[in-house]
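Figure S4 source data
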Amino acid sequence: MANPTWTHAGAPIPDEHDPMTAGVGAASWAKDRADRPDLTVHGEPRIQPMSVLSGWHVDKDDANPIGMSVVAGDGQVAGEVADLWVDRAEPAIRFLQLKGEGAPVLVPMGYCRISNGQVHVKAIYAQHFGSIPRPRSNDRITLLEEDKVVAFFAGGYRFADASRNEPLF
């Protein structure tokens, strides 16, 4: 969390923080968001990896991103899709999980474009993928964790490249 340099409203925030993870500006999230999974009407976690759910699959007429390379905004390959996290209440893909060890690295589907057998993520560059906030669990995500992941990508549109901080005109 970033702290202003002074106590008055509008005081500057020092540059010592990574703006994509500091929780401010374009990369901010709801600080008081519940740190528990969103639940279905049956009391089960709403968003989970498809690999742990029975009866879930990608329709044969749709592109299945599993195994596709993820190309970052700088044109570099940042990873490969290992799993799909789906919304059990509104059948939709919510996150793509990248291959890797440890806590899952999730990319919000809303920031992805599938084209020519690849997943393109314009918001962030390959160097940023190691800093994506990760959920504590391998099979569920809390509301707070979800906000932080999505905020990271939203902030990427502003902070991933210094040129994005300048006026357009």
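Figure S5 source data
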Amino acid sequence: MPLRNLTLSRMLRGAIFGTAWLAVLAWASQPDPQEPGKRYDALPMKVAQTMLWLADVGAGDVVYDLGCDDGDIVIIAARRSGAGAVCVDRDRRRLAEIEEKARGAGVADRIRFLTQDFQATAIGEATAVMLRLSRAVNLELRPKLLRELKPGTLIVSHEHDMGDWKPALTAYVRSGGRDRPVYLWIVPGR
């Protein structure tokens, strides 16, 4: 299936759509409750914006963020694009922090927060799925994504691919002194 049409105005909006958030959302490194002793890094703003831009997220979309990290993706999707969003994570504390952050941004009513395992999450309503997981978890989720998502649904992953499933597009975002890959797949027809 072809990529959605990206008009010039939509591309420009995507390129600048989070500029005001740079001062509001901090890039932080926080303990990862999934793996004690390990830290997770907040998603750099440029990467979050690129992920949403690649998925061409707009008001009619439902964005699923599996493993929400700092929640920026769902908050930006709801605030800047007017999209609905679902934040899925196993850590209740992290979800509570993200929900509080979403309330502060005035978008908590557009985001559902689900404390559950990714494999147990019904994802069929998603029009875009955001992944910032390991390659191993991406590969575990791949059959579920292909089985449950409608053809044409966009999947975007930061850093990690899906093995032999070649992305429709790969973008590189310069952040933290390195080029970070962002992959886009389109769920094929059945």
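Residues 135-148 form the longest helix (14 residues). The beta strands are 29-31, 39-41, 62-66, 84-89, 111-115, 128-131, 154-158, 169-175, 178-186.
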